[in-house]
Amino acid sequence: MISILVITLAAGFPLHAAEPPKAALEWDLRLRHEQVDDAGFGRDAAATTARLRASLRLAPAAGWTVLLEGEGVAGAGNYNSGANGKSAFPTVLDPTGAELNQAWVGWKSAQGGVTVGRQRVALDNQRWVGAVGWRQNEQTFDALGAQWKPRVDLGVQYYWLDRVHRVAGDKAINRLARERDLDSHLLNVAWKHGAQQLAGYAYLHDDRDVASASTATYGLRWTGAAGQGGQGFGWTAEYARQTDHARNPADFGLDYWLLEPSWTQGRTTLRAGWERLGGNGAVAVQSPLATLHAFNGWDDQFGTTPAKGLEDRYLSAGGKFGRGRLDGKLAWALAWHDYRADIGGLRYGSEWNASLGFPLPGGLSGLVKLADYRADGFSRDNRKLWLQVEWRGARTLAP
To answer: Against a cut of 0.85, is the pTM above it?
Structure first.
């Protein structure tokens, strides 16, 4: 309903401005090969997919923006996309198809703004709400968003979510993996002073299609750095309380914790982290609207938190290097995770992650990425390898 309203507004928008309307064409072409070796299957998955995302961005009047964006995914190989019925192979959640990815109208000033339509929503580090940008078909929302800056150091964001368009696509065999109707309210208030930021949030998520997924999450997130120029000691600390909400038949109250100290020296950052998603044996803290690939290992073993909860203890390092023309243009990351249950003492296994990003001629970028999960009383051993090339660009169109 919201997207239809936006297209109607965009088609009949009055172009009364002091200067000619501006327009730009933006594109993102991404070619990826993903190899999956899952011990639970007799054959590996091999998926070669290409994603083209093209956008038309219009500025019809001062402060106003209209965005129309389409997205198409093509694929080849033997893999279970969630929609192609190849269940004899491991899953690579990149289904083929085309869709209207974004269609919104927005107005913005120095004090705030409003956006209505199908849009990308990403709050804080996307632990609770995000775009799942790693997958070829990203996650977007039919939503109303508002931002307000009453002071330079204070920002308020509010979103009402009407529908979520999930990465599995609308043709997913499991209907629960498709888009869902929502009536969710998200409030985020952030105060920033120098290198420190304190954010408080209340995310009231009402899933109209899956009542058991409805939750209320209230939390505080504190990030900061003690050094100058991004060097030295830094930290992230977060606490949240999640309870049942709306028509959820369960009755629970569970805690979420994150502690992540870091140290940056030159172009290298070291991190040690402890993330706890509480569980009681029947239900656990969940974040179904999050960019889950960014958390608890790239192998995506914990997209749904086990009922006994999850403790993720990890060490990571990353940064940039290079000489000559490649000075500071090579990006690397290495991480190790140890997974355990929040209750009961069960070990879930461990995982190594590694990646290297590099520039290519013609404005292209390349990426090699690896995830190696070793099971221990939970799931199965699994390895994933990604090879990727991406081309992004934009061009201003003559008025």
So the answer is: yes
> What is the per-residue pLDDT across 119-169, written as a single tens digit (0 to 9) for each?
999 999 999 999 999 999 999 999 999 999 999 999 999 999 999 999 999
Handedness of CA 73, 78, 81, 86 (dihedral sign): positive
- Per-residue pLDDT of 200-210, as tens digits, reads 999 999 999 99
pLDDT at 7: 43
Cα–Cα nearest to 103, from 49, 163, 147: 163
81 neighbors 44 (Cβ within 8 angstroms): no
pLDDT at residue 227, rounded to an integer:
82
Q: Which amino acid is at 391?
A: W
Q: How far apart are CA 392 and CA 28, in angstroms?
A: 4
